[in-house]
Amino acid sequence: MSTHDNLPEQLRKPSWLRMKRQGGPVYNEVKRLLRSANLDTVCEEANCPNRGECFASRTATFLLMGPTCTRHCTFCNIPGGRVAPLKEDEPRRVAEAVNHLGLKFAVVTSVNRDDLPDGGAAHFAATITAITDGAAGCGVEVLIPDFRGDQAALETVLAVRPNVLNHNLETVPRLYPVLRPQADYQRSLQLLQRTRRWADAHGRAPMVKSGIMVGVGETHDEIIALLRDAIAHGVEVMTIGQYLQPSDRHHPVDRFYTPEQFAALATVGRDLGLAWVEAGPLVRSSYHARQQSEAMADFPRRSYDTVELPQPDAADSRQP
Known about the structure:
Elements lengths: L2 H4 L18 H12 L3 E2 H4 L5 H6 L4 E4 L25 H12 L3 E6 L10 H14 L4 E5 L7 H8 L5 E3 L9 H4 L5 H18 L4 E8 L5 H13 L4 E6 L16 H14 L3 E5 L8 H9 L16 H4 L3
């Protein structure tokens, strides 16, 4: 019997959470290329529900530094445990795959590597450089870990100027001990703030992005408080998606949000001051990343020091 069958009626996946059909010649070509290059993707390691759509459009989120994480988040399908040494040729192989796929925009992320002195920042930087040197005009979004708050590690990544720097807050602070026991909400906010201040000091790039999942036990008021915190710390783009329990061993789903409720959250986020909110049941961190980056290129960016949060009003109290 499946996990879905064991769930009470109100927690069984609704129709809008059906995974998109996978397959087709382009989808299979992308899978073959990734296999032949011995590359990991978060699309498959984290069982992303959009991988069929993304592979079919020649998009993949590359997962650096191996498929094993040094942390043990209870929502994540990437296993924790003993990690392997870094593969020095991985940046080159990722860049070659980007070229073969003909990508105009690449997304790169990693497992947490707390075993490394810089958390893998230099490996990120080498990969970004290899992509931008090898594929003229290809934009890059990086989804980075918190580097345990190491400012020098963050600046190593920022120095090679990715188009977008993404660091997910993931959930509301009350749930961090349960869902992200080795992370810290304030440390993540500080990383986002430091990125935005660096961006203001060195030119437009990178755009500052974060994301959360809902349906893990948060309240509406906690979501609003998180959005306000994100804006106050320089975030410009936010993704909001439905948590899906990978297995019986993972944190349980508390509730499923409807498409209309996601639309309401997106409206509230924009009303609060976010430039872009990508919200929906199957939205994940890198979903429509290229479209976001291209749209934001022409968006008038305010200096971080001029960002003002609106006073709480009726928009804050609207239930999703």
